[in-house]
Specification:
Layout: E1 9-12, E2 18-21, E3 24-26, H1 30-42, E4 45-46, H2 47-54, H3 60-77, E5 82-84, E6 88-91, E7 96-97, H4 98-111, H5 119-126, H6 137-163, H7 167-180, H8 185-197, H9 201-219, H10 225-231
Parallel strand pairs: 1-7
Antiparallel strand pairs: 1-2, 2-3, 4-6, 5-6
Helix pairs in contact: 1-3, 2-3, 4-6, 6-7, 6-8, 7-8, 8-9, 8-10
C-alpha cells in the first residue's frame, strides 16, 4: 500500500466493520479491528483503560503487551490511522467514522427541529446497527446507547413530519422506530397518529390491533388509554 494520509481513511462500524483507504478496502486481524473500533467509538482513551477493556480476562501485564503489539501492527499496516500519545490512543482527527457522522446528524436534528430533514437521515437511522455479531461487553453497551439514540431521533422525525403536514413520511419514521423496538409504545402511538393524519383509519386500527396483541402476548398488558382513545371512536374494545 502506498503511504496513506489521515484524510484518506474511512472507518465504518455500522452494518459491519470496514476500513477503507481511499477507494480500497483493507483487512485487519480481529485484535486490531477491536482496538480500531474501540477508539473510533470512544475517542481518546488512556492506554491502561483500553488494555483492560479489550483484554479483561488477561493480567495487567499481558493486556498491556497485547495493546503494544496491536498498536505496532496498526501503525505499520495503516499509517496515520492512529494518533498515539505517551499514555493515550485515538484515531487521527481526520479519520472519517460513520458513527460519528450519524451522531452529528442526530445532534443537528435535535438542535434544529424545524429544519428540512434530508431523506438520507431516515435511511441511515433505520439500518444503523452497530457492529452486529460482536458480543464484547463494551460493544453491547455502545450498541444499546446507539439504539436509544436512533429511536429518539426517529420519533423526533415522525413528530416533525406530523407537524409539517407530511403524514406519509411520519409513518415511515414511526415504522422504523417500531421495527427497532417492537414493544415501544411511543413509536406505535406515533404510527397510529400518522395513519389518522393521512386519513387512513383502517391502517390506524390495524396498527393499534397488532401492537395491542403483541403487548398482551409478550407482557400481558394493554396499550395506554392515550393510545386506545385515538381509535376508540371507530374501533370497539
Amino acid at each position: 500500500m502506498t503511504v496513506a494520509l489521515a484524510q484518506d481513511w474511512q472507518l465504518n462500524l455500522l452494518g459491519a466493520w470496514r476500513l477503507r483507504c481511499g477507494s480500497s478496502t483493507v483487512t485487519a486481524a480481529s485484535r486490531e479491528q477491536r482496538l480500531i473500533a474501540c477508539v473510533g467509538l470512544l475517542g481518546c482513551r488512556h492506554r491502561s483503560f483500553l488494555a483492560g477493556l479489550l483484554w479483561p480476562k488477561s493480567s495487567e501485564t499481558q493486556a498491556a503487551g497485547n495493546l503494544r503489539t496491536s498498536v505496532w501492527c496498526i501503525s505499520h499496516a495503516f499509517p496515520h490511522l492512529l494518533q498515539a500519545g505517551a499514555d493515550t490512543l485515538e484515531l487521527h482527527e481526520s479519520v472519517r467514522v460513520d458513527v460519528t457522522a450519524l451522531q452529528r446528524n442526530v445532534a443537528t436534528l435535535q438542535a434544529q427541529p424545524d429544519a428540512r430533514i434530508p431523506d438520507s437521515y431516515l435511511e441511515d437511522l433505520s439500518r444503523a446497527d452497530l457492529l452486529p455479531g460482536w458480543y464484547d461487553d463494551w460493544v453491547i453497551f455502545e450498541q444499546e446507547r446507539l439504539r436509544q439514540l436512533r429511536l429518539s431521533a426517529l420519533e423526533l422525525m415522525a413528530r416533525h413530519h406530523l407537524a409539517a403536514g407530511e403524514p406519509g413520511r411520519a409513518v415511515i419514521a414511526a415504522l422504523s422506530a417500531a421495527s427497532i423496538e417492537p414493544l415501544r409504545e411511543s413509536a406505535h402511538l406515533l404510527l397510529v397518529q400518522a395513519h389518522l393524519a393521512a386519513g387512513n383509519r383502517a391502517a390506524a386500527v390495524r396498527a393499534y390491533t397488532m401492537f395491542s396483541n403483541l403487548l398482551e402476548g409478550e407482557l400481558g398488558v394493554q396499550p395506554s388509554n392515550q393510545m386506545s382513545d385515538l381509535v376508540s371512536a371507530f374501533h370497539p374494545h
